[in-house]
Amino acid sequence: MRKLSMDELGRATPGSFRQMGKMPVVLVLDNVRSALNVGSAFRTADAFALEKIYLCGITATPPHREILKTALGSTETVEWEHLGDTSSAVLKLQNQGYELLAVEQTEGSVALQKFEIRPDKKYALIFGNEVSGVGDEVLAAADGSVEILQFGTKHSLNVAVCIGIVAWHFTQKIRLLFL
After folding, report:
1. pTM of structure
2. For residues 139 and 104, what is the distance between their CA atoms, to the nearest angstrom?
3. What distance in Å separates the CA atoms of residue 140 and residue 102, rounded to the nearest whole number?
4. How far apart are CA 7 and CA 16, in angstroms?
5. Cα–Cα distance, 124 to 138 (Å, whole number)
6. pLDDT at 7
7. What angle do CA 123, 15, 74 make, to 5 degrees?
8. What are phi and psi of 128, to 5 degrees?
């Protein structure tokens, strides 16, 4: 067994990536404290060809040293926008027809694997602060919430890990079911 070379992987160039069709999924980072987690979100959004990332509130923005460290150039390929508060992003996305899903443990949350992804929908996945989660005002405005079932003693996952799991799930379902 040998590793495949970059040429053998057939990856898109930054220019062709910007022009290609994207998954109808955006990430909304609600006051994420760690720039390293933000960089990981960029890298995940690039890997799964997501439409855009909204960086809200205190969430760091490129070019930040720690974002660039984990993003590995994906800040140059993934479209992003910073808004002073997450509520502004929520309102903007609602007006654009996105279904807003907080990724959070809430009353009535749906287990990720049971959430029905529809081909006629665009999704905005909202991820919260590493300590306090998705803000209450944002939760109140969301259309629903999904959670990753967990079975250990801890009650949460690192936000970058969570973004990776949820983005992969939505991408594989959309590609498998609709493309």
Report:
1. 0.96
2. 9
3. 10
4. 15
5. 12
6. 87
7. 60
8. -100, 180
- Other beta carbons within 10 angstroms of residue 140's beta carbon come to 10
Q: Is 9 exposed, middle or buried (0-12, 13-18, 19+ CB in 10 A)?
A: exposed
| 36: CATH | 3.40.1280.10
Question: Which helix (H) or strand (E) covers residue 28, if one does?
Answer: strand 23-30
- For residue 11, being part of any structural domain is answered with no
Mean pLDDT of 44-54: 97
Residue 119 pLDDT grade (very low, low, confident, very high; cuts 50, 70, 90): confident
Domain count, the chain: 1
Q: Where do we find the tokens 């609600």?
A: 30
Alpha helices per DSSP H over 72-117? 86-95
pLDDT of residue 175: 86
Helix H or strand E segment including 98: strand 98-103
Please name every residue paired with 82 in a beta bridge, in sequence order, or none if there are none: 55
